[in-house]
Structure formats: structure tokens, C-alpha cells
TrEMBL record:
<protein>
    <submittedName>
        <fullName>Uncharacterized protein</fullName>
    </submittedName>
</protein>
Amino acid sequence: MVFHNVESCAGLTRRAFSTKLWEKFSTLGNADVARRVVD
């Protein structure tokens, strides 16, 4: 049971981290696209 809790905890952390990373990258990508459109 302890192992299962640790695993799900790590999974949640990883998911939150990758979501934050994805948000950051997609924001950068959108800014890049907007800059290209403006240029």
C-alpha cells in the first residue's frame, strides 16, 4: 500500500510538472507565432 501511494504521488508530481512545462512551451510557441504574423 505504501508503494502504491508513493507511485501515485510521483505520478501526480510528474503530471503537474509536465503540464507546467507544456504551458510554458505553448506560451512561448504562441508568442513566436504571433511575432511571425506581426512581422
